[in-house]
């Protein structure tokens, strides 16, 4: 198993390096004057030249790439052009919104998907199974941003149980508190989770049904174990092996999917920051944000590979 993890770690580092090259090339090396884009077509040549010197665009591309990577590694990627603030500070301020939102949405996704998927599998080809599949198909077809708007209309306008948007902060000094912060994240988390839960429930159902046909399940039932005990004690762990991959990809999708949802609910998170950076033509900030999102996806995939080694006993046997 150690060899398996070392190979996955090497792949993780290589993928991260390739991603950094792609992000840098797309936003920095490809044809087009970055300084001209940031300042607009009406900018004077003197202003463009001054910004090029400030951003270091007059240096060779390889030197600029090395400097950029060094800034990312040392958590000093430079300053935002639009905000004139260190990018690290801007990102840190937004992480306290985006990370709890993604975690809450993922928790709701897992709970809903496991409950629905297990229920559908245990009632295969019966009314419960058909009902879960119909509801999940509807959930897959609904866009998250549209469902978020419906939630606002119902639970914030008609039934004022939750705020319609904005974020009060996690502390009383910021004008909010823990409960107020959670309330502000409930509706966007549900909007993100429903669609993902509908997808994951189908994977859970298929994986559980496949494991239920295995010989060891029949052996466990023959020993006198109840269907519930077999389902939770034997089937679920083996069924989770393919499901973990989907869960990892979904969590990465939830983080990147906040770009739209945070704008629907006016949440000051990473999604709204990158949207504002693109609107402001803030290339250094866009560059850092895109690399952060790419690194998040790569790290989550690596964590999924590690979980594979812990969950799937076949990997332990194959790499002894």
Automatic annotation (TrEMBL):
Membrane topology: Multi-pass membrane protein
Keywords on record: Cell membrane, Membrane, Transmembrane, Transmembrane helix, Transport
Domain of life: Bacteria
GO cellular component terms given for this protein: plasma membrane
Transmembrane stretches, start-end: 95-119, 140-162, 182-204, 241-265, 285-311
Domain (ABC transmembrane type-1): residue spans on this chain: 95-304
One annotated GO molecular function: dipeptide transmembrane transporter activity
Family of this protein: Belongs to the binding-protein-dependent transport system permease family.
Designated name of the protein: ABC transporter permease
Organism of origin: Piscinibacter aquaticus
């Amino acid at each position: 198993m150690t060899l398996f993890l070392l190979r996955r770690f090497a792949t993780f580092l290589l993928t991260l390096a390739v991603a950094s090259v792609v992000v840098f090339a797309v936003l920095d090396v490809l044809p087009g004057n970055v300084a001209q884009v940031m300042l607009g077509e009406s900018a004077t040549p003197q202003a463009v030249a001054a910004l090029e010197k400030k951003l270091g665009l007059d240096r060779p591309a390889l030197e600029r790439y090395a400097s950029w990577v060094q800034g990312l590694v040392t958590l000093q990627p430079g300053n935002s052009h639009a905000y004139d603030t260190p990018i690290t500070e801007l990102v840190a301020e937004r992480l306290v919104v985006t990370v709890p939102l993604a975690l809450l949405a993922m928790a709701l996704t897992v709970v809903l998907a496991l409950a629905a998927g297990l229920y559908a599998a245990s009632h295969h080809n019966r009314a419960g199974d058909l009902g879960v599949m119909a509801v999940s198909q509807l959930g897959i077809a609904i866009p998250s941003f549209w469902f978020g708007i419906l939630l606002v209309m119902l639970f914030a306008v008609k039934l004022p149980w939750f705020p319609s948007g904005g974020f009060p902060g996690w502390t009383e000094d910021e004008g909010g508190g823990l409960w107020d912060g959670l309330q502000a994240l409930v509706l966007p988390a549900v909007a993100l989770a429903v669609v993902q839960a509908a997808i994951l429930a189908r994977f859970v159902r298929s994986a559980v049904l496949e494991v239920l046909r295995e010989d060891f399940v029949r052996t466990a039932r023959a020993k006198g174990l109840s269907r519930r005990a077999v389902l939770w004690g034997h089937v679920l762990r083996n069924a989770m092996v393919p499901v973990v991959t989907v869960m990892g990809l979904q969590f990465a999708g939830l983080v990147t999917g906040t770009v739209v949802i945070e704008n629907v609910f006016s949440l000051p998170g990473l999604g709204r920051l990158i949207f504002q950076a693109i609107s402001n033509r803030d290339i250094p900030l866009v560059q850092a944000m895109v690399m952060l999102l790419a690194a998040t996806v790569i790290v989550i995939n690596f964590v999924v590979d590690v979980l594979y080694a812990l969950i799937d006993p076949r990997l332990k046997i194959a790499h002894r």
